Amino acid sequence: MRQDLIEKARGxxxxxDRGHYTVPTHGLYPFQxxxxxxxxxxxxxxFDEARxxxxxxxxxxxxxxxxxxxxxxxxxxxxxxxxxxxxxxxxRKIPTSGITQPAVTGxxxxxxxxxxxxxxxxxxxxxxxxxxxxxWHQWFYRNxxxxxxxxxxxxxPWESGRDNxxxxxxxxxxxxxxxxxxxxxxxVAHANxxxxxxxxxxxxxxxxxxxxxxxxxxxxxxxxASPFRMVDPGFNGILIRSCRDLADLAETLGENEIARESxxxxxxxxxxxxxxxxxxxxxxxxLDRVTNELVESPSIGGxxxxxxxxxxxxxxxxxxxxxxxxxxxxxxxxxxxxxQPQFDGLRYWRGPVWLIVNYMIADGLLNAGQTxxxxxxxxxxxxxxxxxxxxxxxxxxxxEPCGGSSFTWTAAMVIEILKTxxxxx
Length: 425
Ligand code: GLC
What we know:
Distance between the termini: 14 Å
Number of helices: 17
Bound molecules: alpha-D-glucopyranose
Number of strands: 9
Number of domains: 1
Order of helices and strands: HEHHEHHHHHHHEHHEEEEHHHHEEH
Strand order of the largest sheet: 3-6-7
Shape: globular
Helix content: 40-55%
Strand content: under 5%
Structural class: mainly alpha
């Protein structure tokens, strides 16, 4: 059965493979996405290491001169997606979007390097990527943490990777909609509109894009100019984990300066993460940098923080919190607390389960020795696939497959989970 699932997952990767990058799925997402690629490379690495390295290499070929790695690379024109290159207007020869996404590549590269069978190839690729990933991390702390707090902001909900999370509702409501050019959404032609963000949210997303474009995408200005500035514990947890892993990798490769600075980013970040902890919710919360208040919204962002080496007592508290949530749903881990009135088990990041998030939480909690909850998360993840195939996301109670189908990173996570130590006994 397990081998059968792995074969099916490989079939999904093959279908979405464009040779030097993969699309997340046919139709809905016809280009290369940043964190999708990094996580999908983990799947490839189990059966084709060269292809795994190629995926990440392609992503970094489109890194901006200032260090940013954009969230979408529009390799081939396709009018089945909105907003396309004309809306972003970033002026790149091969067009890209202008915002970024969770920096999970440092983690992925270290993991693929550590278990590589072809060490020569792994060393060469890791050595080439190391300074570029580091430049991206430096870009984050320079542009997104201007006051040196140790934590970075996102300036657009899409940067979080959790596009329409309930976490953003209040802050997004402050983003205007006046002056947004009329547009036609394409996503609702590929997926059930009830599973997707609303039109109102889309207008605000596009307002932000137009606003940033009016600054010529000058990253030294965008943070302060954005009416949406949010410190997301999940996003920071991923960045911190990548900095820590990059420090380890740099040490292995004898790049001591990169190792030193990466470890400093990570140590500072872990200490600062404490400012996001909420005793009332038993998890981390987002901080709205415009109002300087914690956002009372218990989402998966505050649990995903466990991907980085948070203190043991925090990891234990997160494990208990997930255990409690697990008593109320059939499948862990819902992207929002089901006890909250805004929870919606079918709508994208407002309740459904996402396998990539499950994987990262399980990995972090495994490192923290929380093996019982890891078993439950991993078992639930595989049950979802057996029940409903390789969907984009799933209802945490009915396992209804939602969004796009034959999804690349879902398939990659199945291969990764079944082939690694995290696999259920
Ligand atoms: C959606 C997701 C985002 C992902 C992208 C491509 O926008 O919210 O996290 O990277 O789709 O799969």
